[in-house]
Amino acid sequence: MLASNALSGCGVGHSAHSGGPSVVASTDVWGSVASAVIRGHGAVKSLLSGADTDPHTYQASPADAASITDATLLVYNGGGYDPWVDRVLDGHPTVKTVNAFSFLGGAKDPNPPNEHVFYDISVAKSVATAVADRMSEIDPADAKDYQANAADFCRGADTIAMSEHAIAGEYPSTSVIATEPVAYYLLDATGLVNRTPPTFSAANENETDPSPSDMATVLDLINHHQVSALLVNPQTVTNGITGLQNAARKAGVPVTEVTETLPSGTDYLTWQRNTVSQLTAALRSNRSPS
């Protein structure tokens, strides 16, 4: 059962090893991070993948609950992003877990905290390290491999973090619009200033239409070239967001996609690397606004 949905570190399925550890992840994002650490020493099953299901509102099936309670290790987002996991864990407190949200650094926590911690590279590194530590306890014979794989993942993550910091150095205090809070930690790392009204982004995240005044504010920022890029989540596009993208293209403001799950055929590091590269390219193509 676990082998059918396994993910490898490169986003390709691999077979479960007979009697080996089974790791379950709430989403393919954390499944990819776990797979980069496990790498051939067991199966990794992601309960949610792709853009068709919203982790916030998903309801765990009996099969999902069984996978969670039977897992050698569970890796999940936490922070209210995948609350269906918490509901299962409430009845099974002995399940070994890695909660990504628990690694969020207090110094840059928004108020209230933003649960989209998969855009925080330091959190992803902490998750990889925690998975390696937990698996080293569970499977000490392969501990050296787990630790080496986590270190390799962290080196790749550090390269991405350097690219984020380079944006902060090259484009200080540059303004952008992000239609949803999903990119909060990416913007924090790159030093970009999000000019989006909070009520506008909240409406989009809840899949409702922004108020006419908020839409007018955002359109005015675009049409007067007061922002250097528009960041959109293509998984929750509405008519209003489509119109906003059209207005940005007409005004010459580049559009960058920030997805909430892994693009097909990719892994965590490639996903984050490509997102930062696309954002950098957008900023380079539109240097004049500040």
Distance between the termini: 52 Å
- Which term fits the overall shape? globular
Q: Per DSSP, what share of the residues sits in E-state strands of 2 or more residues?
A: 5-15%
Number of strands: 8
The radius of gyration is 20 Å
CATH superfamily of the largest domain: Nitrogenase molybdenum iron protein domain
The portion of residues assigned to helices is: 40-55%
| CATH fold label of the largest domain | Rossmann fold
Rounded average pLDDT? 88
Q: How many helices?
A: 10
Low-confidence stretches: 1-18
Tell me about the biggest sheet? 4 strands, parallel
Give the SSE order as H and E letters: EHEHEHEHHEHEHHEHEH
Number of domains: 2
Quaternary structure state of the chains depicted: single chain
Structural class of the helix and strand makeup?
alpha/beta
The CATH class of the largest domain, by name, is Alpha Beta
The side-by-side strand order for the widest beta sheet comes to 2-1-3-4
Please tell me the CATH architecture of the largest domain by its name.
Answer: 3-Layer(aba) Sandwich
In brief:
With 290 residues, the protein is an alpha/beta fold. The chain has 10 helices and 8 strands. The longest helix is centred in the middle third of the chain and has 28 residues, at 143-170.
Could you walk me through the main structural features you see in this protein, from its secondary elements to its overall organization?
The chain has 290 residues and is α/β, with parallel strands linked by helices. It has 2 domains: 3-163, Nitrogenase molybdenum iron protein domain (Rossmann fold, 3-Layer(aba) Sandwich); 171-284, Rossmann fold (3-Layer(aba) Sandwich). Helix content is 45%, strand content 11%. It is built from 10 helices and 8 strands. The protein has helices at 28-38, 62-70, 83-90, 121-138, 143-170, 184-190, 198-205, 212-223, 239-251, 268-284, and strands spanning 22-27, 43-48, 73-76, 97-99, 175-178, 193-194, 230-232, 255-257. The strands form 2 sheets. A 4-stranded parallel sheet has the order 2-1-3-4, sandwiched between helices. Strands 6-5-7-8 form a 4-stranded parallel sheet, sandwiched between helices. The protein starts with 21 loop residues before the first strand and ends in a 6-residue tail after the last helix.
